[in-house]
Structures are given as C-alpha cells and as structure tokens.
Amino acid sequence: xxxxxxxxxxxxxxxxxxxxxxxxxxxxxxxxxxxxxxxxxxxxxxxxxxxxxxxxxxxxxxxxxxxxxxxxxxxxxxxxxxxxxxxxxxxxxxxxxxxxxxxxxxxxxxxxxxxxxxxxxxxxxxxxxxxxxxxxxxxxxxxxxxxxxxxxxxxxxxxxxxxxxxxxxxxxxxxxxxxxxxxxxxxxxxxxxxxxxxxxxxxxxxxxxxxxxxxxxxxxxxxxxxxxxxxxxxxxxxxxxxxxxxxxxxxxxxxxxxxxx
Length: 261
What we know:
The chain has eleven helices and ten strands. The protein is an alpha/beta fold and 261 residues long.
C-alpha cells in the first residue's frame, strides 16, 4: 500500500492559520525590536519542526538531505546573489567548472576546490570571512560528508549556510540541477529525535507560498525518515524564537478513542 501524502494527514486550513499567526507575530516582533538588535541574531526563516518516534540511524545523520520546495527561500533577485560552489578538484576541476557555469550564465561568483578550502581557510576568521562573503553555498555530493570538519562551527553550529548538495556530472544539466537546488531546503537529522527544515522566509515567501512549501517539504521528509508517517510523532511550525504551533500529532487508536469520548 502506498504511503499517504501530507494532505491526507494534515488539515490545510489549520496550517494556513498557523502560518498567518506566525507572520503576525513576526511583524509585531520586528516593530518592537530595538534598533540596536544585532543583525546576526535575526533569523527570518519559518521552520517545520519534526519530532520522530526514535533516533534515526547513523547513516541518515551523516549527511544533509535536500528537500524540494515549491518556492525558493532565496531573495527574488536571484542573479544578483553571491553564490559559491565547492568541488573536489579531481572529478570536477575548478577551472573547467568556472568555464561551464559562465557559459550557462549561472550566478556562481566563485568555485573553490576542496584542497584550497583546507589550505586557505583554516582559521576561524578566514572561515567567517568566507561565510559572510556569499549568500549560499553549493557542494558536489562527493565532498559533502567532508565539509563539517573543514568548515567547522562557523557554518554548522547554527546551520544557516550549510552547503547545498548538488549532483553534477558530465552528462547532467548543470543549470537545471543548480536551479533545483536553489528551490530546496536542507534536512539535517540530529542525533536525537528532533530536527527542522526551513519552509518559509519573512519578506521573501508569502503566506500561501509557505503553506505550499510546507506540504511539499513534508512529502520530501517522508521519503527520508524511517517508516514514513509511522516514524513521525509530531510536526510543528515555528520561527527560531517563537512558540511552536502544532500541525500534526500521532495518536494511537486508544488515544484517539479517548479524545472522542
């Protein structure tokens, strides 16, 4: 039997109300914020918070998972963004990658090979400068498992600019693959039962777009977590510093009967 989709388990109207409530909360928060609030402390993303019934297996924790969305969380002026691609330097040479991306008119401002990343960005300050220089990072799938050690806490502590995996090979359409990656989010399963994936962004995605992103993201998450719906205990929506609004909670048959009575 095929697994049910997100729309079979989650009420769309309830979800829409939750999204609108979060957007109203964010607007009020911004109006009341001190002008001295540090920009780095701001997190404009809406998260789908996922609570699993069990800790996921180690092979699922090792690397980030790309989750497709309907609408990109990047600013509208895509071709004005500063984007960086990290390659292995062996299967994909950095100079050849630059030439190909230029011929495709892709807004990748820099291509870094892994060895240069290791040699030139050892210090915290160098990593921080790299982090601040680009809006988004991509990495070919072969180097993705090596990046946490190379890029360190600057990139991975708050998970704001973890490089997005891309599957680039000689015969694939690089432009389509990078564009798909730009309309994706990352699911980094933790060593516990709670994880999160971005589904919206204040000032970028509208309410109805966030709702559509949410349902698309849930279907993507179901393809990754063990037992699909059977492995999920609860789903919530939240900003990083807001209350978490419930949109799904697993109940046993006994609990469901008790609630009805």
